[in-house]
Amino acid sequence: MTEPVIRSLLDTDLYKYTMMQAVLHQHPAAPVEYRFRCRTPGIDFSCCLDEIEAEIDHLCRLRLDEDELDYLAGLDYIKPDFIHFLRLFRLDRRFIELGCEQGRLELHIKGPWLHTILFEVPLLAIICEVYCRRHYPSPDWHQARERLRHKIALAAAAPASFRFSDFGTRRRFSRRWQEEVVARLGQQLPVQFAGTSNLDLARRLGLRPVGTMAHEFLQAFQALGPRLIDSQKAALEAWVHEYRGRLGYALTDVVGMDAFLRDFDLYFAKLFDGLRQDSGDPMIWTEKALAHYRRMKIDPRGKTLVYSDSLTMARALEIHHRFQNDCAMAFGIGTHLTNDVTDPVPLNIVIKMTACNGQPVAKLSDSPGKAMCEDAGYLAYLAQVFQVRLAGADVAG
After folding, report:
1. What is the average pLDDT score of the chain?
2. 60 phi and psi, to 5 degrees?
3. By three-state DSSP, how is residue 149 classified?
């Protein structure tokens, strides 16, 4: 194996640790399952399997060192008992099943949520980098750096209120390229560049770590909450209980924006600092969010709307230009920053929670094709309960 893809358990998104802390305190024994999907058609992973296996073995030997633990302890929302738990923590290879069927990568994660939650991001980074090594051994780095230079120039010319962060760990071309990108953004855009979701890079480069919660947190409460119809409210309550006003950005598209807003009443609207958009038309989504705040007599200019769905720099600037006078905004840009190296479109790969507590869970999304579930019957029932239209779901079984 060449230099390992993952060299630190901090080489992941902040929200994996913030969710993990909440799981430790509230649902430490909950069993879960995750599945890998490659949404890019025609991809053959056969030649990558052995290297992916070796990378996973290396990942499962890693532990956090004292400097890394001290860094986490310095974040004011991370609690001492969580640090004590992490001091002993190691990912367990027994919770992963990996294989390849006619070129299709089959990856199944099954185990306690507390002990499997950190697998997702490093596994996706491993799969993406190993694939890129195999298929693009000699990328045109001059062209990649020119593309980055153009993005930096676009951001530098934006209004002072434009802020964006790096969200690109899971689908990066390589660890080294992400670090180069993030370092250059931090050096050349001290105003516009707000930070990175990658804890390892934030620590080593002196940047702000960015992130709150992911879809899996709300999905899990479909099986952990009192009633399915109350699952979103139960998840948001659990988050408030854990963080007491910190990390206050709610993800809106687990069952779609319309269903989310029905649950996001005045209580939550006042408690949370803002909302995050990760599917659907961002213009329509923003209009709905602004209208919702105004109906509750809340000035949206005091809230922050965060955008993270397949953004390019140009698209982020377009959204900012349209709504900059209506609310505060922040943008999380991923693949467009960290895997804009080769001309072919980067892999579209995901790992999603599909079961919790022995029951199926799902996200419906606001974009056709982004829903994912193992059980078609459950997906239909979820849509019925939340009164949303089901279209373009990725159902495996």
Report:
1. 95
2. -80, 0
3. helix
Comparison of pLDDT for 2 and 56, the residue scoring more: 56
Count how many residues are written for the chain: 397
Rg (C-alpha) for the chain, rounded Å, is 20
Cα separation of 260 and 67, whole Å? 40
3 inside domain? no
pLDDT band at 378 (very low <50, low <70, confident <90, very high): very high
pLDDT attached to residue 397 = 43
**Based on the domain organization, do 333 and 349 belong to the same domain?**
no
pLDDT of residue 366: 85
Q: Are 106 and 36 in contact (CB under 8 A)?
A: yes
- Which residue is it, tokens 């989310």? 260
Do residues 209 and 196 lie in contact, with contact meaning Cβ atoms separated by under 8 Å?
Answer: yes
Q: What is the pTM of this model?
A: 0.96
Name which of 287, 337, 291, 331 is nearest 309 in CA terms.
Answer: 331
Residue 393's pLDDT band, with cuts at 50, 70 and 90, is low
- Residue 36: helix, strand or coil by DSSP? strand
Contact 386, 259 (CB under 8 A): yes
Instruction: Check whether residue 20 and residue 123 sit in a common domain.
Output: yes
**pLDDT (tens digit per residue) in 340-359:** 998 878 999 999 999 999 99
The answer to whether the beta carbons of residues 314 and 335 sit under 8 Å apart is no
Residue appearing with tokens 């910190």: 246
DSSP class of residue 127 equals H
pLDDT of residue 178: 98
Nearest to 263 by CA among 300, 222, 324: 222
Using an 8 Å Cβ cutoff, are 223 and 233 in contact? Answer: no
**Beta carbons of 264 and 290 less than 8 angstroms apart:** no
**Which residue type, as a one-letter code, is found at position 235?**
A
Q: Is 9 contained in some domain? A: no
- How far apart (Å, rounded) are the C-alpha atoms in residues 227 and 338? 40
Q: Is residue 171 part of a domain?
A: yes
pLDDT at 391: 62
Among residues 296, 295, 303, which one has the least CA distance to residue 323?
303
Higher-pLDDT residue of 372, 259: 259
Domain annotation covers residue 391: no
Q: What integer is the mean pLDDT of 73-94?
A: 98
